[in-house]
Amino acid sequence: MTNRIALNFEDGVTRFIEAMPQELVADAAYRLGLNIPMDCRDGACGTCKSRCESGTYTLGSYIEDAMTEEEAEAGHVLTCQMRATSDCVLSIPAASSVCKVKVATHEAEMVEVRPLSDSTIAFTVKVSGGNLPYLPGQYVNVQVPGTTQTRSYSFSSMPRDGVVEFLVRNIPGGLMSTYLSGPAAGGDALALTGPIGAFYLREPKRPVLMLAGGTGLAPFLAMLEELERHPTTHPVHMVYGVTRDVDLVEVPRLEGFAASIPGFTFATVVADEASTHERKGYVTQHLPKEALFGGDVDVYLCGPPPMVEAVRSHFEATGVTPASFHFEKFNPSQPGS
C-alpha cells in the first residue's frame, strides 16, 4: 500500500506523489521526475531539509550538521532519510521551477451553477479522469470559457469522485460573473490549473481559530469538510464576517458542520449598521477572548486586504501572538477585467 505525499513548494505549487512502502521520499520524488534539492544522499548536507506539516514517518541516520535534534523535534525532516508511514504533507523550501515541477492543467466540465444571493454564486465542475488532489484551502486558476483569461478561486469543497465546488462573488460586469450569470451551462468545458497556495489546513495540534470575510469563506468550507472526515480533539471556532445581510451565505452548511464536527462552533457578523443581525460590526469586534487561548492557537484568515490588515493590527494592539498565523488576501476582479 502506497502513501500519498503532498509536496508544497515555497511558491505555493503543490504536487502529489505516491511513495511505496519503505521507499525514501526523495527517491519517490525522483522516480516521478521531481528534483528535490540535494547535495548528498546520506544525511550529511541538510540540503533536502523540509518540514513535515502532517503525517507520520521514520528517519534514517543523519548528522547534526545536517539537522539538529531541536529541528527534528519541530517536525523538520531530511527527504533523503525519510520514509512515510502515512499520508504526509511536506513544505519544501524551494521554488517549484528549481525542482522541475510544472503546474498541472486539468480538463473539466461545468456541472451546475447556483446563485446563492444577489452577491454570491456557487458553481460545481467535474474533473476529467476524476483525479485532482489538493490540500484543503488551496486554489486553482480557472480559465473563463470563451476567453484566454483566468480567475483564481479557492475550492469550497474537497473532491468527491472528481466533483469540486467553488464560491465566488458576483461582480456586475466581471468576466467570470458575466459568464456564470449568463451563458454558463452544464457540459461547458473549463480548464483548471493548479493546485496552488500555501494557505491550507495543517494538522491541528492546538485550538484553531478561523476568520472568514465574504467569499473568503470558500477555503474554510473545504477545511471543514476535511475536519468532518478526520476530526480533531482540539476546539475549532470560526467568525464569518460580511458587509451586508445578502452577503451571508452557506449558513445552513456551517450549521451542518457544527452538528457533525465535535468542538466546532461559529458566529456570523454583518458590518452594515442598518442590518438587524444580532452581531453587527467587524470580525475584530467579535473575537471571543476564550477562542484565543492566550495565543496558544492556530489562526487561519482569508478575506479582503483591509480585513487582513485589521486583524493583524488587532493582534498587535492586544498583545496576542498566535502560535501560527496563516492568511490569504484576495481582491475580487474588477468589472471589465
TrEMBL record:
Gene3D superfamilies: 3.10.20.30, Nucleotide-binding domain of ferredoxin-NADP reductase (FNR) module, Translation factors. This is NADH oxidase. Its cofactor is [2Fe-2S] cluster. Residues 103-202 form the FAD-binding FR-type domain. InterPro entries: 2Fe-2S_ferredoxin-like_sf, 2Fe-2S_ferredoxin-type, 2Fe2S_fd_BS, BenC-like_FAD_NAD-bd, Beta-grasp_dom_sf, Cbr1-like_FAD-bd_dom, FAD-bd_FR_type, Flavoprot_Pyr_Nucl_cyt_Rdtase. GO terms for molecular function: 2 iron, 2 sulfur cluster binding; oxidoreductase activity. NCBIfam families: BenC. Residues 3-96 form the 2Fe-2S ferredoxin-type domain.
